[in-house]
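Query structure, 145 tokens:
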């Protein structure tokens, strides 16, 4: 699938979700038309830290294979240069300032509301009929409490 196709499919799913027309996981005809999505978000990985990006010192065959058969975004911009506020923004589509978070140390006083969680990436995919799983560090404010 090419990047434009992915953006079109993902955009269509987002629009259906906004208007309450999400698909059911039990609807097998629509299930076949949905692409499989594996979203990998690494911690502190530079753009050129994979073999497929031209790094001659690293061997990353599994990631290279995923990149060759999937979509790899080559230009990305962070809403915040610090990891926790940036991850919050990636997962919710909101600026970290919405919850008063500008740095990692702000996480104790920043709170994500249930509405924000319900509109976050994982929940949106669930509402669209996807099975979702999350592995690794959550790295969102107050998620470990």
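Result returned for the query:
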């Amino acid at each position: 699938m090419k990047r434009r196709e992915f953006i079109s499919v993902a955009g269509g799913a987002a629009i259906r979700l906004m208007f309450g027309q999400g698909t059911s996981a039990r609807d097998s005809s629509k299930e076949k038309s949905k692409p499989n999505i594996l979203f990998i978000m690494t911690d502190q990985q530079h753009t050129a830290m994979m073999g497929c990006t031209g790094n001659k010192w690293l061997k990353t065959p599994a990631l290279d294979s995923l990149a060759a058969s999937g979509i790899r975004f080559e230009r990305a911009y962070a809403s915040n240069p610090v990891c926790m506020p940036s991850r919050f923004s990636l997962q919710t589509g909101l600026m970290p300032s919405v919850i008063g978070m500008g740095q990692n140390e702000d996480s104790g006083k920043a709170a994500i509301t249930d509405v924000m969680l319900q509109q976050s990436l994982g929940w949106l995919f669930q509402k669209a009929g996807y099975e979702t799983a999350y592995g690794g560090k959550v790295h969102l404010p107050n998620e470990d409490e």
